[in-house]
Amino acid sequence: MNLFWTMAVGGIFGLGVFLLVRTFYHPKPGVGALVARLDQGRKSMRTSVLTEMEEATNRAQGVANSIFALAADRLEAFAAERGWTLGKTGKDLAIMSKSVGGFLATSVFTGLAMFLFGPLVWGITQMLGVDLPGALPFAVALVFGALGAAIPYLSLKQEAEKRRKEFRKVVGIFLDLVAMNLSGGRGLPEALLAAASVSENWALVRIRQALANARLLGISPWEGLGELGEAIHIEELTDLAGALGLAANDGAKIRSSLAARADTMRTKELSEVEGKEGERSQSMLVAQLLLSGGFLLFLAYPAIGGLMNL
Q1: The CA-based dihedral angle spanning residues 266, 274, 205, 40, taken in that order and rounded to the nearest 10 degrees
Q2: Where are the beta strands (DSSP E) in the chain?
Q3: φ and ψ of 114, to 5 deg
Q4: DSSP class of 63
Q5: Whole-prediction pTM value?
Q6: How far is residue 123's CA from residue 133's CA, in Å, rounded to a whole number?
Q7: Of 36-40, 236-240, 263-267, which range is least confident?
Q8: Alpha-carbon distance 111 to 173, whole Å?
Q9: pLDDT tens digits, residue range 207-226?
Q10: How far is CA 86 from CA 62, 99, 104, 180, 231, in A?
Q11: Which residues have a Cβ under 8 Å from the Cβ of 201 and sit 6 or more positions away?
């Protein structure tokens, strides 16, 4: 048994050394990789788009997170230098207005805290007189550390999906507002900006910021919306940008297209809500059947017990 634990610990240690070397040692990159890293570094310097309420919440946290902020900045630069985009996780961070460095720092600190939990439990068991194998605390600490590093990812994924659902609802309303502004005689760029300026909702703030960035960069507003849709993984916004680009010179077609898209999104949202309500109804029905079956068994138990004793 001791030989097995020795081999397991040695294998895990060797794997950790290999991953550490692969992380810090990288061959000479090509031109494409260098350009991607420079572009990623430029993107990492962009400030997050926050609403006034989110900014007030961040200021209220004070200077207690200075160490965390320093680690986040170092990890942000480390990831940008190596061109890490994090794939779908990067898009989840974008819609949550969180930085890559903050996410990596959260994973590191959470994993480290959970890693130290294993030796703490082992020390408590030793004080209580419980004899455990020497390699067990290290294995438990590795499991807890991996679990702690995965917790921020799972939490981010759930929160990002909720925000995407809310963003899709706002996009449907935004389409109706744009169609109304076009009917009033405004041009497409003015209609997009006016529709995004009716509220301080965080989704409309993101759309308004994308339109403002597009004007500063000298690109069309729908290209800015397309970039936003790609960054936060909202297919409806990307499709809208493509449709606006194809029919930018025909106001009547744009109005009808936007109205049709808004109706389609509302129908899809209604069907999803009805589907969820149907699932909840089925769950309630199963719970009622189980409760009724248990109650009937409770009533029949004395009679069944009496018959078995005869």
Answers
A1: -100
A2: none
A3: -70, -30
A4: G
A5: 0.65
A6: 12
A7: 36-40
A8: 41
A9: 999 999 988 888 888 888 88
A10: 29, 11, 10, 39, 12
A11: 170
